[in-house]
Specification:
Protein name: Transposase
Oligomer: single chain
Number of helices: 4
Order of helices and strands: HHHH
Number of strands: 0
Distance between the termini: 55 Å
């Protein structure tokens, strides 16, 4: 008996070409909640700056900027304009590069 006859047949595999594959599902934004009252003003400023830096870092990564050395201030300002947020300060740009550095 030939050896090929002894091998079990592979299970049928469904090709993904026959149906569309969704890589990113659109998602609804998270419901906004008020920030906790009673904190010092600096806490709110820092909190909002971190959120903005995170949004910008994600936008840069989505656009193909993967290294902090590629994320110059003008690149970050372009990403801010693209996603519709106010132009970031130099401190926020520095924070964006730090987020990209530490995510590796």
């Amino acid at each position: 008996m030939p050896a090929a006859a002894l091998k079990p047949k592979p299970l049928p595999v469904q090709s993904t070409a026959k149906r569309p594959v969704l890589l990113e599902l659109p998602c609804a934004p998270v419901e906004k909640r008020p920030l906790p009252p009673g904190r010092p003003r600096e806490w709110y400023v820092t909190h909002n700056r971190r959120l903005k830096a995170m949004r910008l870092a994600i936008a840069l990564l989505d656009s193909g900027v993967y290294h902090p050395s590629q994320a110059r201030n003008d690149t970050i300002h372009g990403a801010a304009e693209l996603i519709g947020v106010h132009p970031p300060s130099d401190t926020t740009c520095h924070m964006v590069r730090a987020l990209m550095r530490y995510s590796r």
